[in-house]
Predict the 3D structure of the following.
Amino acid sequence: MRAHTYRLVLAALLAAGADSAKAQSIEAGAAPPPPQASEPSLSLREAQLVGAAAGFALGIALGRRADTPLPALRPLRGADAIVTGSAVALYLGAGLLGRKRSDAASAEHGAGPMREINAFDRKLRKLAVGHRSLEKRLLLDHLSSSTLMVTLFQPVGMLVAGDVPHKWSRDVPVLAEATVVTLSVNAFVKHLTHRSRPAAHFCESEQTVAPCPPDTRLSFYSGHTSSSFAAAVAAGTLADFHHLENRRWIWASGLTFATATGVLRVMADQHYATDVLTGMAAGGVAGWLIPKLHKPDRGAPLSEVAPPAAPAVVAAMPVVRLRGRSAAMVTVGSMGGGPYVGVHWQW
């Protein structure tokens, strides 16, 4: 009995000693390694598809045609070709500039000295990001892409639903021109300023993820924000030109999603507040200026509202068959000078 008791006491002492040694080794060792990056539940592609579908549906719901005669927009001119060509050249020049900077950084075996962050950006980043986990930051990053797609596809749905003259030959090229100009100027400024993203700038000091992501140094200014504001402002301006019934809602919804895009970019730790504010201004100017070049003249003739016409069906394909009959059929054709896709159900 006494020997058994000695064995129990000895086992307890050995266990206590092992736990103590383990605790000392943890205290003496380095801090636990930072977590590895993991993909959120909502992937980037899924977020983009959901945003595109939501924006297209929202545009169709708000794009009702006007009940009064519409003033005709100014036609496309040579200035549009010059602006678009200059934007493309600027975009290609930005790519060459970025390649030269990357080669120079590789030759110097580093990305160059890290610039100090101003107090305004540092304070707003602390309020917006805080101690949010990396997975949540990635989720907010994907959500910002979703809201961006909403603003880009809302004008398309608005033009599809709105029965306005020259929407495919003038309105769509005007929207594309505003987007191309915005993306080109943004890409050139990004490669010119070469500012580090906050996620890369604070990665080593905060140990948010291991290993730290590569520093692309393309933070200033936000391309998501500038593109979304360009699309939102351009859609609202065209809605005003065409006197669409829900033009106030088009403005409100577009600016709301564009603002949400900028806020999410800061919360996702992808941009600083000054990046987003600059993107708002640059995108808004492009979205207002390009359509303004095609503003209808006061003495321009009025275009009567075209009556709703039946679609010209080019092809039809049954997709569901019940009891030997087609219960659902997809038709493809044209209507109002644009493409038409319809789904017909039989009950």
